[in-house]
Design goal:
The protein is globular. By secondary structure, it is mostly beta strands. It contains 4 helices and 38 strands.
Length: 572
């Protein structure tokens, strides 16, 4: 009851138009954080459900900076969540409390070409400190074919084994469902520099290619972001749906006179790469740039937002981002950013690469403030959204601000502040979403610092408070089409069921009178069997066959009315 009273009070602090709320309905000590890294923390699937990841301290009652776990939650209804009750209780993707897991990024597969609704497989990557004290890049996946209860996450698998440190990864999936991962790699043997490394998987994360070095500037290359063109519900002939171009940005201390934003792309899903481009130089910025965020619109055009005024480029030396307790320390929890709670003027800049050229930079934010850690996304109407943390009065209070404009231009407008007067709000992450069944708009999550007001709610003491919580805001709507007759008389539910489970040789799959398409999907998201069920036939008999391995599979029924799924275990 006490928590609900506090939560209600917090709702009264925000502007009436803001539909922001805590994700997990728990104001206790949890040390939850979305983190400073550029990776996406939230995606939306083809049925309208949100999926999000964050890291949380393993010992919620310990001092800040202890080992963290990767947490996952999803919404319980295919509509914008309006309260914490709309989110499922968070579950762990990682289970080894002796290891430090943090800074996750999540991506979602696109389905078949021209049909973005037939596969919603989720992929999460993060950095893990192993027993030798070296951070590695880890991966886990989830078939996500049974909503609102998704499948089981695969055990963590190492994408890259490093002898130094692999940090702050980001993940995305291109339209043919190639999984792309980039990260920052330490180079202790070359004078404390760092590079941007890349790897991909063409089999849903089962195997990964040898890494490629994308930066190779002999300077500090940090905080990368990877993105591919978003999918749309129109026919592939209407846009560049078949593009397998991969876009990557990062911040770099060279090769010019100061910190800058670099860009590189691959036309063929990561097999070959074009020469890197200096976004800061091309857009006319002054080389005090860092922490870029990337999105790619339907025309396969990259759009980048970044911090300008990063002096010095922080952290000056590349990590490792070991936990600490000093918010002015570049390696602090949940940082890092040595300029936080300072008087340094920082702006959010933007540039897009149209017709092969980067446009002149645009100042996104309106206020003279300390503006940091932008996150950019684009919706299905080519509207760009940029969210960031802003400290209008240094060392007093951080808020989340957001601005928007069309890809075609026209200037940034409608800047909105999402604020809580008694709390610091940090590290926003705009969602990437499947566009087949949702309306235009924005959705993002962020970290609220000191949600229990144990350290006055804002300023440097708040960074040491024991209550860091995850919050959400958004305004997109679910666009499931329903006829007038269906609205009034209801949709007849199918009698979707399995005659036996587990199965060894086969089982009858009943579908009811509606029929549809039955798909059998393995744990890696691959379809091992598909069969159409005519309306009125009631079902099919599925013969397992001798070649299908033992394990857990998903039986998925799709028709014009619904999609249902059941787990089935094959035994021998």
């Amino acid at each position: 009851m006490k928590a609900m009273i506090i939560l209600a009070a917090l709702f009264l602090m925000v502007a009436p138009a803001m539909a922001d709320h805590q994700v997990d309905n728990d104001l206790s000590s949890e040390w939850e954080a979305t983190g400073f890294n550029n990776g996406r923390r939230m995606v939306r699937d083809s049925r309208g459900y949100f999926h999000m990841v964050y890291h949380s301290q393993t010992n919620p009652n310990g001092t800040p900076g202890g080992n963290c776990d990767i947490m996952y939650s999803h919404t319980l209804l295919p509509a914008p969540p309006t309260s914490s009750a709309d989110w499922a209780p968070a579950t762990e993707i990682t289970f080894d409390t002796s290891l430090d897991d943090r800074y996750p990024s999540i991506a979602i597969e696109h389905g078949s070409p021209g049909n973005p609704t037939d596969n919603d497989m989720l992929h999460v990557v993060w950095q893990r400190e192993d027993m030798s004290g070296v951070y590695q890049i880890m991966h886990s996946s989830n078939i996500n074919s049974t909503m609102p209860a998704p499948g089981t996450w695969t055990p963590p698998f190492t994408v890259h084994v490093s002898a130094e440190h692999s940090l702050v990864p980001d993940v995305d999936c291109s339209l043919n469902n190639v999984v792309h991962v980039v990260w920052q790699e330490e180079n202790f043997n070359s004078g404390l520099t760092s590079d941007i490394l890349y790897s991909n998987s063409i089999d849903h994360g089962m195997n990964w290619t040898p890494f490629q070095n994308l930066s190779m500037t002999e300077f500090n290359s940090q905080t990368p972001d990877v993105a591919t063109v978003i999918d749309f519900q129109e026919a592939p002939s209407n846009y560049t749906y078949y593009s397998e171009r991969v876009h990557v940005v990062w911040s770099d201390d060279g090769p010019t006179s100061g910190p800058c934003i670099m860009y590189k792309s691959s036309p063929d899903a990561g097999n070959s790469w074009d020469l890197y481009e200096n976004v800061s130089h091309s857009s006319g910025s002054m080389y005090s740039d860092g922490y870029p965020s990337l999105t790619v619109s339907r025309e396969d055009i990259p759009h980048v937002a970044w911090m300008h005024g990063v002096i010095p480029h922080d952290p000056t030396d590349p990590g490792p981002y070991t936990p600490g307790v000093d918010p002015l320390n570049a390696n602090s929890f949940p940082g890092p950013e040595v300029g936080m709670y300072s008087t340094i003027l920082q702006n959010i800049y933007y540039s897009g690469r149209n017709s092969g050229n980067w446009g002149s930079f645009e100042i996104v934010d309106e206020a003279m403030a300390e503006n940091e850690f932008p996150s950019i996304a684009v919706d299905n109407t080519d509207m760009l959204y940029v969210a960031w943390q802003a400290n209008t009065y240094p060392a007093t209070d951080y808020n989340i601000r957001q601005a928007e404009r069309m890809v075609a231009g026209g200037g940034w407008g409608n800047a909105t502040t999402f604020y809580h007067l008694d709390h610091d709000d940090l590290f926003p992450s705009e969602a990437t979403k499947k566009t087949a069944m949702y309306s235009p708009g924005y959705d993002f999550v962020w970290t609220m610092i000191d949600s229990d007001l144990s350290a006055t709610g804002h300023g440097q003491p708040a960074a040491l408070s024991p209550a860091h919580e995850i919050w959400f805001s958004g305004n997109t709507q679910w666009n499931s089409s329903v006829s007038v007759e269906e609205e009034h008389i209801g949709i007849t539910a199918s009698a979707f069921d399995l005659m036996s489970n587990p199965v060894s040789s086969g089982t009858w799959i009943s579908t009811g009178s509606e029929g549809g398409v039955i798909s059998i999907i393995d744990i890696c998201g691959r379809t091992v069997h598909t069969e159409a069920v005519p309306a009125g036939s009631a079902g099919i008999f599925w013969t397992v066959g001798e070649k299908l391995p033992e394990g857990v599979y998903r039986v998925v029924l799709r028709n014009e009315q619904e999609m249902q799924s059941k787990a089935v275990t094959v035994i021998r």
